[in-house]
Design a protein that fits this description.
By secondary structure, the protein is mainly beta. It is built from five helices and 22 strands. GO terms for molecular function: hydrolase activity, hydrolyzing O-glycosyl compounds.
């Protein structure tokens, strides 16, 4: 499917009545027909169902609320029309975002981590740059497919004076939970990946610590800004422990020609590292990926490609002990219907501008 058929399909979905869009429907969507960004898949063994979480898109759900939607599938190829599983309640500090939703099981509940912001809530300036409030909030549900309700009135887990995003849950070998997130380059110039210890209720239990900086990766390229500064982006940390016990982290930044799916490895096998940067898993204006195990036992990776008007892309992966590697593109599932761009377009005009 090329761009015109894709846009026609999305237009037809947007034109459908809201009530009709919310009714359960058969799994008839293919990945090239599905708007998504920062995809996260939960493979639920109990129901033998894949749940793909992403930011709510009104064109897909007919629901204009800011929040998270979920697609479901039995085979990773045919998907149901999405429905909203979390909507930001009125009165909460945030005004925009709903980025990078992740869903994790913890202590008998399901927890949604997703990032919001408020551009009017400014933080102290960094040179000519003007950071503002951004952070990952928490929501909880009894079932993987929700509905989710905000925890602690939607206050971010990390300190609110830090401009952070893309929080993920990491549980160490002692069973202790951590929030790992990206500290935004608007506040740091060189973006970092940081970690905060958590209590059992997933509230912060200590101070942030830096795991690594974006410019430690040889493939990462600083992005020139209008004020003349070069900045380095960090996005989408996600963890995997190999069968041999090696701890690796997927994360994304920008390379010479667009968005990149990177990977780092902990030399100690622990969260504190030190972290060494390996060769990227995927370039091709692709990133913010995560790993999951398919029901047939295969290790899989899902990411979005391209960065603008993003769609889902699936890869079969291999655990080689000291890292994970790409085996092949799963084109039989995603139909490889993705235009790729030599230059990344801005996520928002002030945040993701990249030179060609």
């Amino acid at each position: 499917m090329r761009v015109k058929p894709l846009m026609a399909a999305l237009a037809a979905l947007a034109a459908a009545p809201v009530a009709a869009q919310q009714k359960p429907v058969e799994a008839s969507l293919l990945l090239p027909q599905m708007q998504l960004h920062d995809p996260f898949i939960v493979a639920d063994k109990a129901s033998q169902t894949y749940y793909l979480f992403t930011r709510n898109e009104a064109a897909m759900t007919g629901d204009r609320r800011l929040g998270t939607m979920v697609y479901t599938s039995k085979d990773l190829k045919r998907w149901t029309r999405p429905r909203v599983v979390f909507a930001l309640p009125e009165g909460i500090w945030a005004k925009g975002g709903a980025w990078a939703p992740e869903v994790h099981a913890w202590k008998g509940k399901w927890y949604l981590f997703t990032t919001f912001h408020d551009e009017a809530a400014t933080l102290p300036p960094e040179g000519k740059r003007k950071p503002y409030r951004r952070g990952t909030i928490l929501a909880v549900a009894d079932k993987v497919d929700g509905p989710y309700r905000a925890v602690r009135n939607g206050e971010p887990i990390a300190p609110k004076d830090l401009m952070t995003l893309d929080g993920t849950l990491y549980v160490d070998t002692a069973g202790k939970p951590w929030l790992v997130y990206a500290h935004e380059w608007l506040q740091t110039t060189v973006g970092t990946i940081e970690a905060i210890p958590l209590n059992d209720d997933l509230s912060a239990a200590g101070a942030p610590r830096v795991l690594f900086r974006a410019n430690e990766a040889g493939w990462a390229k600083g992005q020139r800004q209008a004020d003349g500064d070069s900045v380095w982006v960090t996005d989408g940390p996600e963890f995997h422990r190999t069968a041999a016990g090696t701890l690796v982290m997927l994360w994304s930044s920008y390379g010479e020609r667009g968005y990149v799916q990177g990977i780092a490895r902990s030399k100690s096998g622990n969260l504190d590292g030190p972290w060494e940067q390996l060769d990227p898993l995927v370039r091709r204006d692709s990133g913010h990926g995560m790993l999951f195990r398919a029901f047939d036992g295969r290790l899989m990776m899902v990411l979005h490609r391209p960065f603008t008007m993003a769609l889902g892309k699936l890869y079969e992966m291999k655990d080689v002990g000291d890292r994970v590697e790409v085996v092949r593109e799963a084109t039989e599932l995603d139909l490889e219907a993705y235009p790729t761009h030599p230059c990344v377009q801005p996520h928002t005009p002030s945040e993701r501008r990249v030179e060609c």
